[in-house]
């Protein structure tokens, strides 16, 4: 393919991706009440006043658009990944394709697992944050900030759950070895705990440990997988 043909192919893939995103966002805009109820459920588990308060006339509209955008990106993600895969496939060798498909599938599964874990740990984070300021503070949550926090937590958990994919990729590329990872185990524990404390959006210890423990388990699993692949 010439450079012009590559650019035409890229344009076609981008158009399909944008259309998929717009379709998903439209669906989420219509289903907004159900999505808001789903994301509001963790807050309802820690308080009897399951209400979010807006302070401006445009806050409700901006919240609906933001939630539609997040949901549209989530619904369109299979199409986006498929278009990306179809765009880069012609440049891969057969053995690279053999590794790429399992890596893509595992990445999707791990990201989803991380987001689900964040969703179920969020009530504990809210409970901690609502009591850490003292009993004299009354909690009134802005839905935009609340939504931003829970989405950020789910994205951070989802992205960090790609940790074993990164390690195994480096092992396959010869950058790391299972023996070297085993020798770095003590430092890895410290760095994982520090990283979890820094990148956790809510800043509560429960979410930090809920992120740090799986990351260390992934570290050990990556060592085992690396040994199997080397054999």
Overall description:
The chain is 80% helix and 0% strand. The protein has 231 residues and is mostly helical. The protein has two domains: 1-91, no CATH class; 95-140 and 159-231, no CATH class. α2 (32-44) crosses α4, α3 packs parallel to α5 (143-160) and α4 (94-132) packs antiparallel against α9 (205-230). It starts with a helix and ends with a helix.
Entry keywords:
mainly alpha, 231 residues
Main beta-sheet strand count, sense and barrel state: none
What general form does the structure show?
A: flat
Radius of gyration: 21 Å
Overall helicity = over 70%
Strand content: under 5%
Please state the average pLDDT score.
85
Structural class: mainly alpha
Please outline what is shown here.
This protein has 231 residues and is mostly helical.
What order do the helices and strands come in, and which of them pair?
Blueprint: H1 3-30, H2 32-44, H3 59-88, H4 94-132, H5 143-160, H6 163-172, H7 178-183, H8 185-199, H9 205-230
């Amino acid at each position: 393919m010439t450079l012009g043909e590559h650019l035409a192919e890229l344009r076609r893939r981008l158009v399909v991706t944008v259309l998929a995103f717009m379709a998903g966002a439209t669906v989420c805009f219509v289903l907004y009440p159900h999505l808001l109820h789903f994301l509001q459920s963790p807050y309802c588990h820690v308080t009897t006043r399951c209400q979010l308060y807006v302070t401006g006339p445009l806050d409700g509209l901006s919240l609906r658009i933001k939630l539609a955008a997040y949901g549209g990106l989530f619904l369109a993600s299979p199409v986006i990944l498929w278009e990306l895969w179809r765009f880069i496939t012609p440049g891969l060798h057969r053995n690279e394709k053999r590794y790429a498909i399992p890596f893509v599938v595992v990445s999707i599964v791990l990201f989803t697992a991380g987001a689900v874990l964040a969703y179920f740990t969020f009530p504990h984070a809210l409970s901690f944050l609502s009591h850490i300021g003292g009993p004299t503070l009354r909690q009134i949550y802005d839905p935009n900030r609340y939504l931003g926090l829970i989405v950020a937590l789910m994205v951070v958990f989802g992205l960090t759950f790609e940790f074993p994919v990164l390690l195994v990729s480096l092992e396959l590329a010869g950058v790391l070895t299972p023996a070297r990872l085993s020798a770095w185990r003590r430092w890895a524990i410290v760095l994982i705990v520090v990283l979890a404390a820094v990148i956790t959006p809510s800043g509560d210890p429960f979410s930090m440990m809920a992120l740090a423990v799986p990351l260390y388990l992934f570290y050990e699993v990556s060592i085992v997988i690396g040994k199997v692949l080397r054999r």
